[in-house]
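Q: I'm writing up a methods section and want to include an example of the input and output format. Could you take the sequence below and give the corresponding predicted structure tokens, formatted cleanly so I can copy it straight into the document?
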Amino acid sequence: MGQSNNVTEFVLLGLTRDPAEQKALFLMFFLIYIVTMGGNLLIVMTVIVSPSLDSPLYFFLAYLSLLDAVYSTAISPKLMIDLLCNRTTISFQACMSQLFLEHLLGGAEVFLLVVMAYDRYVAICKPLHYLTIMNQRVCILLLVVSWAGGFAHSVAQLLFVYNLPFCGPNVIDHFICDMYPLLGLACTDTYFLGLTVIANGGAICILVFILLIISYGIILISLKSHSQEGRHKALSTCSSHITVIVLFFVPCIFMYARPVSNFPIDKYITVFYTVITPILNPLIYALRNSEMKKSMENLVCNALATDRIRMSSH
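A: Here is the clean output for your methods example:
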């Protein structure tokens, strides 16, 4: 921070200042967080212990669920604590850390969704070479690339903001530290910096979203040559992926693919893709994938049976 920066903390106004609404929101977000963690970690455990799920598709799905669990943990606990406090502040360094984590995990998920689209393309369009192309080494390499892409995006976002002069005010009408609210508080002209943020965030989201929609369109067209059973299975999997893509990218495009400005609705849209989307992903994949659903049921039943045997032995 330069000498012109005399802001050591930011005040987050949060979602509401009404005590009754804060308690109701705390209860809602607490339940959502518990279900999010339980659902995503159940998917991870199911993929790990189920021999029938030993394929790149479920390997990437497990990492997507793990990523959603970590992403939710980076946002939801702070949000819930602030709903119980009268004055919600966050230090400058903690604000920068939150900004870094948000874009690291969000960027990694963007690239992971691209990886999962490529996996489905190879599986459906080149089924005879699928296991050769998507071997274990390639899968791990693609994961590393997705994390590297998220890291590069996050570092760029952090560098845009970290050295800006903040001389007051320090009040953010939001529940997290994000790019546009911080740019609005800087004591300098951030017009060209805002264009850079749009290029780094919004443009990437738009291009990746269009690329994913086109790729899944190609995949769906190629299903005409498959059998009815194979077509139904592939269509079910692809529809799940497309649903997750739309739910993730549409809010992000609205937030970051526009000139630097802050609207009251921004924080509610941010709630959707930071709190709601991580709980939707396990529900979508569990309900749309019969093999995953069956394996999860077997895992839960075996765990319950083991508990009954342990209790009866005592």
